[in-house]
Amino acid sequence: MAAKTLHPHVKLEGEIERCRGEGQWGQLRLLARQLLPPARPPRKAGAQDAEDYGSLLLAEALLEECLKENFSKLKDSIPLSEKNEPRLRDAKQYLTDILSRGRLRPKYMTEALLILGKLHYVEGSYRDAVSMYARAGIDDLSTRGEPLYVLRLLTEAFLIKGLSLERSTNSVASRARLSEREEEVVACFQTACVLAQLYLQELEKTLNNTHSRSIKGSSVQCSEFELSYFLEAALQSAYVTHLKKGNVVEGMRSLRETLRTVETKATQPFKMVLLHSLSEDCYWSPLSDPLPEFMSKEGQSCVSSLLWRRPELYSDENAYCPQDNVEEALLLLLLSESMANRDAVISRAPEQQDDRALSLRDASAVYDLLSITLGRRGQYVMLSECLERALKFAFDEFHLWYQLALSMVACGKSAHAVSVLRECAKLRPADPTVPLLAAKLCIGPLHWLEQGEHFAKTVIDLGEDAGESLAKGYLALGLTYSLQATDATLKGTQDELNKKALQTLERARELAPEDPQIILYLSLQLALVRQISDAIEHLQEALQLCPHDINSLHLLALLFSAQKHYQPALDVIHMAVAEYPESFSLLFTKVKLEWMHRGPEEALVTCRHMLQLWQMVYSVVQHSNSERSSSVTETPVIKKHNGLHLLLPDAHDTDCGSQRASSLAASRLEQALSEITVQSSAMKQGPAQLWTALEQIWLQAGK
Predict the structure, then answer these.
(1) CA angle 356, 357, 361 (to 5 degrees)
(2) Which of 260, 335, 342, 488 has the smallest set of CB atoms within 10 Å of its CB?
(3) pLDDT at position 118, please?
(4) What's one Pfam family the UniProt record gives for this protein (predicted)?
(5) CA dihedral in degrees (355, 360, 366, 367; nearest 10)?
(6) pTM here?
């Protein structure tokens, strides 16, 4: 009979401990009411102890529910008032009565002190909070064999003690005492961080065991557990304190340890902080020790002795460990991207609008950083795959759609990029850059001239609302007409399209009289209709605006050669080759001019130089391909104006002078928008194109 009467009590105790450990405060409040009788007749000591225990549970539940509702105030360090918070007032009254009577067991009296210390802190009474924790003797408490909720209480106690000491340091007059206080604060935060990790790991085990018999996929994971303000702050407190003090090594170490022990929504910002803390100058691998010169600048860490065990790290077996700051940054971003996709709010319900906006904001920040990191390293295929996964929650979100379009442009998926740009144009019909980029793709790599004409006219139809892009719209339309004339088979159709191209380009010149690129294309169109003198005159105007433009110099040399002025043509080519020594297109023209004007011997010298240049380019390409296949380290983009005939400017030529490789690599995505082109002047860095160039060099040498 004794066992039967004891069983309900044991079951109730277990349910209470579970609710306190998992933060089920509403359920705990109901359980606490069962221990509080409705009336208050004289009772025995055991009944009075049970009543006080029920009051303790009720006080904790009321306090936690109050804190949950005032999360934003806690985050902004705004003290709570009893006048405005009835549950806070009731909880304080319960706790004060319990401590004044002193009838509970020592264990529960200590818990009452810990809970009251938290209550004093949220009221802004920091000294009272420290006093409660001193009475409880938290430095001497042990977590060995204690229920899960004790870990949570101690985590919050050390955190709040550190915060309270930190906010009362102004009252310390002695510099030595102030230094001791700061060390004590750091020790409290470090202990709170480790305890929080232990608590979350134990909580995950408990939740998994509780739901082990549930349907697969329906169990509540620790990553879905809603952290309280104090638990979230405990995870962050250690690294924040170290970074504030300038202890970057300790801060990064704390971040890494946390990421290797616990994975929750609260740790997602950790990846961003660690990402910004990574530096090539002071980087070390997560599994190695930092350099001694960095450790000498750091203070010694101290963690409470009550920690009889440390959090479990994720297994190192078959685990990937980054070797440099680039790999670790990319790893952090890909992990963040995975969590952003998993936690995305895709429901269009009005009541979830705020959650959806917050989810999209967090995801956009991750994808922006991914675009920068992967874009600088030429990993556009991986970037486009990541952005495609974002479309499930990017409905009507222009930014992510446009990022996807740019990544597809950069990795050569031009047809897919045009489809995405059509969607972007629907989202922002008044933005002229979207149809301009689509026109660029249709005119250039795809040779979809009808669609290119449609996109160009879309820009022109915007009129003055297109701003400076209006001239580019006329330029794109003029280029479309010119290419259609080249494709036409009937002489009458060719003449009509060439006339329309010339008129359209002249209109573009009127809108942007000082744009050297528009003048270049106007000169080219004049040359195509055999108006060589007018073409040279316009081209000289373009060179006055941009003296070092490779395409203008190249076209000028060809126009001089068309008039049989070989020496001026060679002078211009020499000038261009001096500025762009690695351009195969210029060198092929130089060979032809030398053969025509000076004879085959000098042309053979240039062919020999081209063979040496080809060998150098081939070695660079092979090395770049091997690096790209083995790692994600940044590979420089080498500017090559290779070609077998006159080629028009490509999207990389955003200024008129020569550009450094590093600046090209960093701004490739931006430059994809800046120009409207007909043909890419840079040969694709691949074996097939290189072998074709080699064949042409030998053919030139054999003539």
Answers:
(1) 115
(2) 342
(3) 95
(4) TTC7_N
(5) 160
(6) 0.65
